[in-house]
Structure formats: C-alpha cells, structure tokens
Design goal:
Blueprint lengths: L3 E14 L3 H9 L6 E14 L3 E5 L6 H9 L6 E6 L3 E4 L12 H11 L4 H15 L14 H14 L4 E5 L7 H14 L5 E5 L3 H7 L2 E6 L2 E7 H10 L2
Helix pairs in contact: 3-4, 3-5, 4-5
The structure holds adenosine-5'-triphosphate (ATP).
Adenosine-5'-triphosphate binds next to strand 1, strand 2 and helix 2.
InterPro entries: AAA+_ATPase (IPR003593), ABC_transporter-like_ATP-bd (IPR003439), ABC_transporter-like_CS (IPR017871), ABC_transpr_TagH-like (IPR015860), Bact_Polysacc_Export_ATP-bd (IPR050683), P-loop_NTPase (IPR027417)
Pfam family, one: ABC_tran
Keywords: ATP-binding, Nucleotide-binding, Transport
Length: about 240
C-alpha cells in the first residue's frame, strides 16, 4: 500500500485583517474587535503519497504559499487537519532560524537541531553542507558578515544536504548567482532520483513539467484541478 506523506483533511485558513496594529494586538486578546476576514485556503482535501512530485499552480493570491506554510508549521489551519509524515525541508525562507552572531558552522548545528537532527548526525553532514555552500573561508565567521547570497547559499545547502524525506520548493527562491542557481537545480534533480516526496510551487509550466508528474491547480483558496501534470497544465492554460 502507498504510504501517505502529506494529507489535508477539510483544511481552511482564514486570516483576520484589522484596520490598525493596535486593533490586531487587541484582536489577539478579544474576539469582538472588528475585523475583516480573508479565506486563503478553503476546505482543502489533498493526499500526497511518498515519492510523488507535485506541482502547485495558481495565480497570485491563490493560496499556494499559505498551503506550504501550513505543511512546514509556519502557520496553522483555522480548521481541519494536516498530517505530515517525514522530515520536511523547505526551500522557502532559507535564512529563517539563523542567529546573526553565530558563525556559519554554529548555524548549521542550530538549524540542524531545529530540524530534529542529533549533533552526531549533523557532524556527519557538516563537510558536505560547507562544501556545497562554497563558504569554506567564511564558515567560521559570524553570519552577520555574510552577504544575503551567502546566507541563502548556506540555508539552501543545509536544506538539501540533511537528507529530507519531503522537499518543499518555492520557485520564487533565488539563491546566489546564476552558476549557483544551476548547481541548486542539479542538486534538486539529484535528490529527486531517490524516494523523496516533492511539492513545488511555480508559475512556470515548463518547470512544473520538468520536475513533476502530478499537478494541483489552486484558485481562490480551492483546488480546482488535481491530476496528471500535462492535464493540469492544460487546465491552467485554457480553463483557469
Ligand atoms: N499573513 C497574512 N495576513 C493576511 N492575509 C494574508 C496573509 N498571508 C496571505 N494572505 C492572503 O491570503 C491570500 C493567499 O495568499 P498566498 O500568499 O497563500 O497566495 P499565493 O498563491 O502563494 O500567491 P503568490 O503567487 O503571489 O505567492 C492572499 O489574498 C493574501 O493576501
């Protein structure tokens, strides 16, 4: 039987919009503070099996990032349930969780621990992480001395070298210069040869076709198509 990697059951996410930061703060304490609501994800049901590579297509504001953030635990559903089985690595906010005063090496341990790895496991992965990030000279300097590209390279390198079981990629991601981006794409292709589950948010149907076999099309928070990637792209291009 196929193993479930990710399952959404009747998941909705409703954001509350307040007219000022003061009201937003009060809104955390009192339910009655006036606000508008935005349904970012509406009653979503979706099952992704281990080893599947799924593209999520949809225009700006369709709810794609909200869906990913709920998988990684950055935000929580307002209602419904999300089941996630496996170590998740998200190429979304690559530098989140870094301590600017810590060195690159110390941050590898910091982020590795956040991702649930033991120090012994991280020690084994450390050389590959440093090498891939091309930060040998700087790895023992505080991260605050890094350029934004260097930080992103370190973040990317940690995410792809920890042997994730579920990889979440947002194409908005731009890591370092062109040569490094090519290297990232090759690395993603390489880890996709294994038994990894991948979720790929993209506006590019070409990229979706290159990486994914299944396509989910989202519109206004709902899944409007789910199936073979060719059919999903056809739906997105002609019926969306
Ligand atoms: N923190 C938030 N507070 C309020 N509204 C939000 C928040 N995050 C997202 N939204 C709203 O939820 C809706 C879905 O946003 P989301 O970022 O998930 O869309 P998206 O499909 O990822 O878009 P894009 O392609 O532009 O990245 C949008 O209308 C957005 O304005």
């Amino acid at each position: 039987m196929n193993e479930i990697a990710i399952r959404f059951t009747n998941v909705s996410k409703i954001y509350k919009l307040y007219s000022s930061s003061r009201r937003r703060l009060l809104g955390l304490l009192f339910k009655r503070i006036p606000h508008k609501t935005k349904k970012a994800v509406v009653d979503m049901n979706l099952t992704i099996f281990r080893g599947e590579s799924v593209a999520v297509l949809g225009r700006n504001g369709a709810g794609k990032s909200t869906m990913l953030k709920m998988i990684t635990g950055v935000t929580f559903p307002t209602s419904g349930e999300i089941e996630v089985n496996g170590i998740v690595s998200a190429l979304l906010e690559l530098t989140s969780g870094f301590d600017q005063e810590f060195t690159g090496r110390e941050n590898i341990y910091l982020k590795g621990r956040i991702l649930g790895l033991s120090d012994a496991d991280i020690a084994k992965l450390e050389p590959a992480i440093v090498e891939f990030a091309e930060l040998e000279e700087y790895i023992d300097q505080p991260v605050r001395t890094y350029s934004s590209g260097m930080k992103a390279r370190l973040g990317f390198s940690i995410c792809v070298n920890i042997n994730p079981e579920i990889l979440i990629v947002d194409e908005a991601l731009s890591v370092g210069d062109r040569a490094f981006r090519q290297k990232c794409i090759r690395k993603i292709q390489e880890i996709m040869q294994g038994d990894i589950t991948m979720l790929f948010v993209t506006h590019s149907t070409e990229t979706a076709l290159e990486f994914c076999k299944r396509g989910v099309v989202m519109k206004a928070g709902r899944i409007v198509f789910d199936g073979d990637i060719h059919a999903a792209i056809d739906y997105y291009n002609t019926k969306y």
